[in-house]
Amino acid sequence: MASRVVITGLGVVSPIGIGVSTFWKSAMAGQSGISAITSFDPFPMDGYRSKVAGQIRNFSAEQHIGSSHGDRVDRYAQFALAASREALADSGMDMEKESPHRVGVIVGAGMGGMVMGEREITQLYLHQKPHRVHPNFIPVITLNSASGIVAMATGAKGPNFTISTACSSSAHALGQAWHTIRTGQADAVIVVGADASITPLVFAGFCSLRALSSKFNEQPERASRPFDRDRDGFVMGEGAGSLIVESLAHAKKRKARIYAELAGYAATSEAYHMVIPREDGEEVATTMKLALNAADISPSEVDYINAHATSTNIGDAVESKAIRALFKNRADKIAISATKSLVGHTLGAAGAIGAIATTLAIHTGHIHPTANYDNPDPDCRLGGLSRDPQEKKIRAALLNAFGFGSNNAAVVLKRFRA
């Protein structure tokens, strides 16, 4: 019989707070972490259509992870390590008492070490001195650098890999951790989602794609507005989220506090378009349904959805259609919130940060508001969306995450019952 899987630890680095306590307090207050980008040193923002992002301005690598790690990893991996250390401490799991080959690390990352990558390629082309490229360039920019550094810092010697599926990366990481534990390959997995790609080239690329909001450059905190009639694109963010997941037997053995149960997961491909989802929402609805089937939960038991909700015109409308298609008459009775309205779209970290918000909603019975939901769009109006915090006892919840490359992920979490 497959093992039940539970969540026992949380850690986060986000534009609205470093640390779960600060993050959750800010989220419940509906605080926006979106601010103006003043420049990409050494050149100004004049040439960029969008000039706002969910930036983390007060992160000190030396303070949060120590100078030895900070000096040899990219910003996204620094975030990953800080979040995973908090999650591990929160879980109460003592790695010195664990069998190291029974603890894995699975990371979701969309872009990898872009801070060093852009810096070094710029220096190479400007000065044409190949011998001056940073000696750690390759191990730092690889997508699995975060999973490697987390394993080395914690001593976890179990399954270790990185999933990169753009915006759904860490939702898939969470799902793969569920599989890994259920199939007996590990007792516990440190799951992390991380990205730090507010860099000159990546930001320019998203601007050229016409994917980013540009109407609210003078009012940054209003720019990320999922499901709102005035939305005009997503707002880039950066950060990391980490969750400690383990088998129920393992958690019980060490008398761990359990936040919620990780109950199901589904991954699909729309096989449709690299950037645009199918407009009828059919594939998104199918993904949610498959995740509920995996959890042996009916749509009638779902009380909350943490929506993917990027604040793009087509994306929000498609997700709304999918929710209505699956839940039918119950669609307006399900509480829904969009974490990206507060922190922006953190790319590979989005699924993990959304999962933390979902876990805390289940654990506390409180759901954070959706910021800037001022003028509900008739094309994606849902009764459970609110600009105010909601209080609700949640039996089961869905976390949605959809990524470039035509891929979808849905994760089911539920209130833990012994």
From TrEMBL:
GO terms for biological process: fatty acid biosynthetic process. The active site is at 167 (for beta-ketoacyl synthase activity). It catalyses: (9Z)-hexadecenoyl-[ACP] + malonyl-[ACP] + H(+) = 3-oxo-(11Z)-octadecenoyl-[ACP] + holo-[ACP] + CO2; a fatty acyl-[ACP] + malonyl-[ACP] + H(+) = a 3-oxoacyl-[ACP] + holo-[ACP] + CO2. It comes from the Bacteria. One of its GO terms (molecular function) is 3-oxoacyl-[acyl-carrier-protein] synthase activity. Residues 2-415 form the Ketosynthase family 3 (KS3) domain. The keyword Signal does not apply. It holds the Pfam family ketoacyl-synt. InterPro entries: 3-oxoacyl-ACP_synth-2, Beta-ketoacyl_synthase, Ketoacyl_synth_AS, Ketoacyl_synth_C, Ketoacyl_synth_N, PKS_Beta-ketoAc_synthase_dom, Thiolase-like. SUPFAM superfamilies: Thiolase-like. Its EC number is 2.3.1.179. Pathway: Lipid metabolism; fatty acid biosynthesis. The keyword Acyltransferase applies. It is an enzyme of class 2 (transferase). Keywords: Acyltransferase, Fatty acid biosynthesis, Fatty acid metabolism, Lipid biosynthesis, Lipid metabolism, Transferase. PROSITE patterns: KS3_1, KS3_2. NCBIfam families: fabF, PRK07314.1. Belongs to the thiolase-like superfamily. Beta-ketoacyl-ACP synthases family. Involved in the type II fatty acid elongation cycle. Catalyzes the elongation of a wide range of acyl-ACP by the addition of two carbons from malonyl-ACP to an acyl acceptor. Can efficiently catalyze the conversion of palmitoleoyl-ACP (cis-hexadec-9-enoyl-ACP) to cis-vaccenoyl-ACP (cis-octadec-11-enoyl-ACP), an essential step in the thermal regulation of fatty acid composition. This is 3-oxoacyl-[acyl-carrier-protein] synthase 2.
